[in-house]
Amino acid sequence: MLAKRIIPCLDVADGRVVKGIKFQELRDAGDPVEAAKRYCEAGADELAVLDISASEEGRKTTLDLVERIASEVFIPLMVGGGISELKDIKALLRAGADKVSINTSAVLKPDLIRQAAETFGSQCITVAIDVKKDGAGGWKVFTHGGKKETDLDAIEWAEQVAQLGAGEILLTSMDNDGGLNGFDLDITSKISDKVSIPVIASGGVGNLQHLADGVTHGKADAVLAASIFHFGTYTIKQAKEVMQEAGIPVRPPKPSRN
Amino acid sequence: MNKEIAVVDYGMGNIHSIDKALKFVASGDNIKVTDKPQDLADADKVVFPGVGAIRDCVAALKSSGLDAAIKQAAKEKPLMAICVGMQALFENNEEDANSHGLGILQGDVKLIKDDGGKAQPQEKSQEEFQERLKVPQIGWNQLNLVDPDHPLYYKIAQNSYFYFVHSYYCLSDDPKIASAKCTYGIEFDAAVLSGNVFATQFHPEKSQDDGLQMLKNFCQWEGCK
After folding, report:
1. A122–B167 C-beta distance less than 8 A
2. Which fold has domain B4-220?
3. CB–CB contact A74 B114 (8 Å)
4. For strand B197-200 and strand B186-194, is the pairing parallel, antiparallel, or unpaired?
């Protein structure tokens, strides 16, 4: 049976994990490659690397980082951040990414989704959608890291990206992000019902029950979380146990070698 | 004895993952990524990964002469095809009725049906958590090994999880060549084994330890003499 995926996300800038900066152990490890390996060992089903470098130089460092992770970690690797052209996608795939996630550029140039899917295959094109409640019962799409509001209705945009050839949607609720109160289950389930492609839920996870709720109530195909894993609050193994108890099919964590 | 393993690069996709994974497991074997038909003829084994559309894949192979080299390799030496590589080995596919695969294997390549949530999933728990069968299938699914004792499955347990990402699936005409089955809405051929040809719908290079073990098994497999 197809397992629901747990995807830890590493935010990197200039080749360094940034969200984990307060987490002592991660800082001591220094290298995001070490963090990636540890997540992989712990049973992560996929890894997301989000490049938040502000400079061209930072992006080059990220490419190098992707290359190093892909040489040692043999699970799927999704990389996002700053992708605006086909050549950016090509460079990331060459470095060893299996999928890329496109956000702002997908909104500015929807044809990029179609071109990217035709050139590289839908399976490696994820469209990231950042949404916020509009106060009138709907959700609006935001771009530029949540700084700019668009006119796009979240559900309509999700349907459009699926039609353009995206292979997957990474849905982040800006209302919930960082709040540790769980995913926005309402918009997650609405979009998951509406599109035929898989939906990854993101934004707001504060405990392991939230991950399970994302699947059972949010109808997500995968759940993404950053801080609960980075800060060592919970392990991937514990997350899988909670999901398993909720009756969700998961890939069991490997038995400990010790 | 060290072997030369050619990885077919037909210029379209991301073959870096398979290259990196093979280099990780191949002790002493030489892994050569190549777009030259002659290299396939000279190699001891061939790995044929594929991504994207079958039609584009087959067209690219034909224009470079790699199609004939792959067909010849399939007769003479161990050949491993992965994902769209597997699909391209079959004669017919639903993706484009006018395009034909390499015809090395007989059977059909069909689209996973997104039923819009109407049909009844085969397994109850899928019904509980998902009203809609998503296409592509993306994620880890279990293998039902038809012959778990085969050297290609050395150290791989029955029902192990492997990583899939695909919108089409293969069903071979000859049920005897089905080597592993998988269920996603329907039951399909997750792997086939016919003579020297081993083809997988899943990505061993992305399936962590079990996937690396399978690649290692292929590196050590003598094929059918």
Report:
1. yes
2. Rossmann fold (3.40.50)
3. no
4. antiparallel
Catalytic residue among A88, A130, A177, A213: A130
What are the start-end ranges of the H helices in chain B? 16-25, 37-42, 54-64, 66-76, 84-89, 124-129, 208-220
Tell me which residue in A71, A168, A248 faces B138 most closely, judged by beta carbons: A168
The answer to whether the Cβ–Cβ distance between A123 and B138 falls below 8 Å is yes
- Any idea how long chain B is? 225
User: Tens digits of per-residue pLDDT, A47-101?
Assistant: 999 998 878 888 888 899 999 999 999 999 999 999 999 999 989 988 889 999 9
**Measuring CA to CA, how many Å separate B159 from each of A153, B80, B166?**
42, 21, 19
CA distance B175 to A124: 31
**Residue A28, pLDDT score:** 41
Pairing assessment for the beta strands B178-184 and B186-194 based on DSSP bridges: antiparallel
Half-sphere exposure of B207 (CA within 13 A, CB side): 26
Question: Is there a contact between A5 and B141 (Cβ–Cβ < 8 Å)?
Answer: no
Distance between CA atoms of A29 and A37, rounded to whole angstroms?
11
Best of B19, B95, B127, B134 to substitute, by most chain A Cβ atoms within 10 angstroms, is B134
| Residue B96's pLDDT band (cuts 50, 70, 90) | low
The answer to whether B201 and B142 have CB atoms below 8 angstroms apart is no
CB B56 within 8 A of CB B87: no
- With a threshold of 0.90, does the pTM exceed it? yes
Angstrom distance (rounded) from CA B130 to CA A222? 12
* Cα–Cα nearest to A4, from B200, B130, B37, B45: B130
Do the Cβ atoms of A221 and B138 come within 8 Å?
yes
Q: How far apart are CA A41 and CA A82, in angstroms?
A: 29
- Distance separating alpha carbons of residues A41 and B208, to the nearest angstrom: 9
**A253 secondary structure, DSSP code:** P
Mean pLDDT of the A8-33 span: 67
Chain B nearest CA to A147, separation (Å): 31
Beta-carbon neighbour count of residue A87 at 10 Å?
Answer: 9
For A3, the closest of B52, B116, B140 (CB atoms) is B140
Domain positions in chain B: 4-220
CB atoms within 10 A of CB A108: 12
pLDDT at A258 exceeding the cut of 90: no
Q: Please pick, among A11, A51, A88, A213, the residue that the annotation labels catalytic.
A: A11
- On whether the CB atoms of residues B208 and B142 are closer than 8 A, the answer is no
Q: Residues B83, B170, B182, B219: which is the catalytic one?
A: B83
Q: Supply the pLDDT for residue A256.
A: 53
Q: Is the dihedral of CA A176, A180, A186, A188 positive or negative?
A: positive
